[in-house]
Task: inverse folding
């Protein structure tokens, strides 16, 4: 005991508290806050302590949570906090105005409000894309603008648009309390990379969070731990190989390019679903339920089912605010397919200002349309589902190549290598030279085949462990991450959107 | 209490992160099952003052190998004709081979793997400790733990390149001796570092500390270099291993079968342990 105290005293004596405080309070472009930063996890613990004290004081609790959320956004995105606050205030008043007006005035205000929200996204994300394509098309020489994309702008813009449109449609009442609306928009678990939360699902929780019981406590810690492991161990480890291959695909054999594409399929899934798990776990701990964003998408037996299970918050947003307003399936078969294609083009474009994302969206749109045409003629049964699952995974992986490659030409190089430069020896060489990665990929492919119900049941067993021991799970998971993580942690893939 | 679990969760995060953070400030390193428990971050310690002046003998400064200005005139060593194993070598003995060394061990490991597999031995693990010197190998418990874990029956030792300019003969010899004790009586082949012009005392010190018949001096070999100018190139490693293999079969203290491999690129089934003395000094 004496020795432990001596060690702690020695450690405390060497900690530079002033420097740490300065680093903590100031935004740094080199060390933006992610959920995976240990400084965030420690700060969250401190935040949670005072949150517990204020839990029963509704007004104070909301203000406290908003303040922490804004601080979190500041640590992630720095000076764009001001822009974010500005948008929140203006959108709040827009929603009130939309609700108060009727007829064509209502429509006009709704259009202005949506365009206002979209304008920032369009400017920061697509201005240079527009300039480049104008220069190419019209042979002009406009200079690109030096822009930095505010983190999470795609997510919170879509969130505010869903709120404004829902108010316009009369599906929800405009919030009369700016604190409530600010709470909904700034809630830090979903702020920077989703899930895209609908006001109708969240606003009614703002004033009545669920106090966590033993089950919710364990569930939230399990989600957070799983999310950290998915992101920092699996996704980042796969990312090392993926980066190598996609940086110079012509340097690698066809087999390596193929395995790089498969590895990316898993990387993006574990990266994004890991982040979503952490977000859902944090929200649950704070007393709020966020909807699931992934439901074992690589187990889908067709593309339509894939989009019901992948990035659910985005696909349902696109369905409700693009596909259905266009006409959905109510205007004949041809228009249904056209609207699907347009919706997926919007979805692709949302991901980034590049033709490769448009190509990715178009491929998925065409696949969805094709599935709509043929699905009635396909036989049913488990074997059909299995074969469909393999085909869907292959198709999705093929599309991810465009998503990940640095540009269109690089994506075509990858495909070229896969088509013309693959031999069985590539896989044998891969097995012997990258044995751990090969085992991981095989394990993940097998994991994909396990029914989701079994996986859920497996996790249910962990809830029998007494609450006290979950501290050791968390400690072990964090140490495990330190043990095997990459020194250069990859940022969350969806942060760039 | 309504918020009891919130307090519990808060304590979980605070205590877990604090423990990991404080551990980073503890100077010692702890191992679990031969695996170092890594720290969240490393603290830069200020350089310690050298208190003891190291006494060095006066050494003849003539380089052991003069690199000609026109490098096309260098005549490199070649892979010798293979010598059939001595009658004392039991052809059927299959050894569990462990390779320990610095970055040159990292370069030779695949060549050694080819030799081992072709001759029925099993290269179980390799330890490539970049930038390490005899100080790391002598003082560190890591090597003992690796030997205990992988249970080799034959050990290849290959380090010294990082101290070819050292002139403290007695210190190097003492460290080499200390390292040799860690081998616990296992049969070994100690290969001296390659020769890039200067090798003041290292090879002689190691040879004196080791069983001289178990030590292979590489000073006489002129090996083609890799792009970094320090390490041999891959053909260089093959030439080197060819010479070592002949010595192992003919005149080493512990002879093992090491005929030239039938092919190159045997599957790599060994455990490659990579350390860097800049991050991990081992003691």
Result:
């Amino acid at each position: 005991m004496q020795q432990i105290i001596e060690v702690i005293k020695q450690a405390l004596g060497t900690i530079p508290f002033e420097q740490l405080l300065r680093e903590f309070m100031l935004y740094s472009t080199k060390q933006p806050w992610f959920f995976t930063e240990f400084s965030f996890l420690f700060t969250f613990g401190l935040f949670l302590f005072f949150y517990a004290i204020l839990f029963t004081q509704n007004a104070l609790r909301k203000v406290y949570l908003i303040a922490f959320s804004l601080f979190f956004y500041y640590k992630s995105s720095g000076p764009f906090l001001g822009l974010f606050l500005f948008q929140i205030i203006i959108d709040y008043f827009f929603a009130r105005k939309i609700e108060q007006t009727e007829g064509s005035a209502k429509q006009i205000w709704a259009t202005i409000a949506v365009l206002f929200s979209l304008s920032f996204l369009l400017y920061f994300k697509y201005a240079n894309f527009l300039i480049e394509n104008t220069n190419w098309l019209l042979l002009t020489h406009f200079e690109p603008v030096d822009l930095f994309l505010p983190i999470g702008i795609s997510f919170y813009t879509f969130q505010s648009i869903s709120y404004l449109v829902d108010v316009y449609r009369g599906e929800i009442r405009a919030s009369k309390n700016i604190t409530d609306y600010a709470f909904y928009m700034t809630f830090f678990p979903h702020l920077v990379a989703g899930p895209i939360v609908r006001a109708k699902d969240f606003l009614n929780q703002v004033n009545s969070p669920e106090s966590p019981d033993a089950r919710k406590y364990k569930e939230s810690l399990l989600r957070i731990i799983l999310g950290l492991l998915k992101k920092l161990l699996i996704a980042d480890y796969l990312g090392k190989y993926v980066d190598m291959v996609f940086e110079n695909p012509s340097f690698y054999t066809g087999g390596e390019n193929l395995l790089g594409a498969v590895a990316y399929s898993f990387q993006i899934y574990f990266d994004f679903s890991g982040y979503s798990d952490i977000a859902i776990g944090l929200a649950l701990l704070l007393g709020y339920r966020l909807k699931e964003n992934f439901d074992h998408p690589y187990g889908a037996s067709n593309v339509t089912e894939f989009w019901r299970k992948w990035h659910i918050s985005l696909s349902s947003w696109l369905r409700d605010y693009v596909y259905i307003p266009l006409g959905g399936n109510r205007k004949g078969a041809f228009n249904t397919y056209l609207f699907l294609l347009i919706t997926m083009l919007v979805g692709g474009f949302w991901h980034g200002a590049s033709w490769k994302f448009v190509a990715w969206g178009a491929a998925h749109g065409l696949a969805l349309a094709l599935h709509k045409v043929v699905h009635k003629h396909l036989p049913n049964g488990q074997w059909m589902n299995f074969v469909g699952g393999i085909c869907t995974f292959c198709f999705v992986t093929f599309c991810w190549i465009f998503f990940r490659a640095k540009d269109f030409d690089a994506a075509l190089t990858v495909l070229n290598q896969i088509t013309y430069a693959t031999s069985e020896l590539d896989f044998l060489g891969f097995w012997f030279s990258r044995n751990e990665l090969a085992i991981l990929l095989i394990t993940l492919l097998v994991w994909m085949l396990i029914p989701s119900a079994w996986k859920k049941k497996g996790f249910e067993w962990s809830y029998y462990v007494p609450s006290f021991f979950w501290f050791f799970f968390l400690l072990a998971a964090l140490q495990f991450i330190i043990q095997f993580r990459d020194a250069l942690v990859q940022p969350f893939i969806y942060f760039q959107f | 209490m309504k918020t009891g679990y919130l307090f519990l969760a808060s304590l979980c995060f605070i205590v877990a992160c604090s423990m990991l953070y404080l551990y980073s400030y503890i100077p010692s390193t702890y191992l679990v099952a031969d695996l170092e428990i890594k720290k969240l971050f490393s603290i830069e310690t200020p350089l310690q003052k050298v208190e003891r002046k190291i006494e060095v003998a006066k050494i003849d400064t003539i380089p052991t190998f003069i690199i000609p200005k026109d490098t096309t005139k260098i005549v490199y060593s070649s892979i010798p004709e293979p010598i059939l194993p001595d009658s004392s070598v039991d052809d059927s003995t299959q050894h569990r081979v462990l390779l320990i060394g610095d970055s040159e061990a990292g370069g030779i490991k695949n060549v050694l793997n080819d030799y081992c597999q072709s001759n029925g031995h099993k290269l179980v693990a390799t330890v490539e400790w970049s930038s390490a010197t005899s100080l790391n190998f002598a003082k560190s418990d890591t090597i003992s733990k690796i030997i205990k874990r992988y249970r080799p029956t034959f050990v290849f030792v290959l380090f010294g390149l990082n101290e070819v300019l050292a002139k403290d003969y007695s210190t190097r010899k003492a460290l080499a001796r200390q390292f040799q004790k860690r081998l616990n009586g296992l049969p070994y082949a100690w290969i001296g570092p390659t020769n890039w012009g200067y090798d003041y005392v290292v090879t002689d010190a190691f040879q004196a500390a080791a069983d001289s018949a178990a030590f292979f001096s590489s000073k006489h070999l002129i090996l083609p270099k890799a792009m970094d100018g320090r390490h041999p190139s891959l053909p260089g490693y093959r030439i080197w291993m060819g010479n070592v293999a002949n010595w192992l079969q003919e005149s080493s203290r512990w002879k093992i079968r090491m005929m030239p491999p039938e092919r190159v690129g045997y599957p790599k089934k060994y455990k490659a342990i990579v350390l860097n003395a800049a991050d991990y000094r081992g003691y």
Q: What stands out?
A: The CA atoms of residues 17 and 125 of chain B lie 35 Å apart.
